[in-house]
Write a structure and sequence with these properties.
two-stranded antiparallel ribbon; two-stranded antiparallel sheet; 16 strands
């Protein structure tokens, strides 16, 4: 007498997926099921590999769950290896994409894991857009740019006044502060 099973004799093992015709709980034939694939996970009783959601990854075969993306890296949807956070950005733990360093800051290194690792724009220069890997340019003559300036006129916020050199002072290009005129 031949007995046909319509499901495994037990639960499909974590780390494997089993079709309805699987006879074992850890099939390896790629017909009735197999070990879970990279970038996917297979909890107990999986019928197909499930893609790792964004902010997680799976870098080995047979995963029963996905791993949270570490700080300094980001993990888009179905990731097998976390990507290093690029220059101009930072990546908190469990990031699905890099976060740009704010206007008035920059970062020229990779793998940053906090906004505090973005550098305040260098005095005498400005940083006018998010995600910069270096300063945008020098402060204009007649103006001064303290650290964190967002434009060539030394503004620290869009609503702030330009940092115009006051009477009795001079400010050549790339000035971080006003210089008193010689007597």
């Amino acid at each position: 007498v031949i007995v046909w099973f319509s499901a495994p004799s037990g639960a499909c093992n974590p780390g494997f997926y089993c079709t309805s015709v699987a006879l074992v709980s850890a099939p390896m034939d790629n017909v009735t099921g197999s070990v879970c694939t990279l970038g996917h996970y297979c909890p107990m009783n999986s019928t197909l590999p499930l893609p790792c959601p964004a902010s997680t990854y799976s870098d080995y075969y047979g995963a029963s769950s996905c791993t949270s993306c570490p700080a300094g890296y980001y993990c888009p949807f179905v990731t097998t290896n976390p990507a290093v956070c690029p220059a101009g950005s930072y990546c908190l733990a469990s990031s699905s994409q890099p976060q740009a360093c704010a206007v008035g800051t920059f970062s020229n290194g990779t793998g940053y894991n906090s906004a505090s690792q973005c550098y305040t724009c260098t005095p005498g220069y400005y940083c006018n857009s998010p995600g910069q890997t270096n300063v945008t340019g020098p402060c204009l003559a007649g103006y001064y740019c303290t650290g964190g300036a967002i434009d060539a006129y030394g503004r620290l916020t869009p609503a702030a006044s330009a940092q115009i050199c006051a009477s009795g002072y001079y400010c050549p290009a790339i000035s971080a502060q006003q210089q008193p005129c010689p007597a």
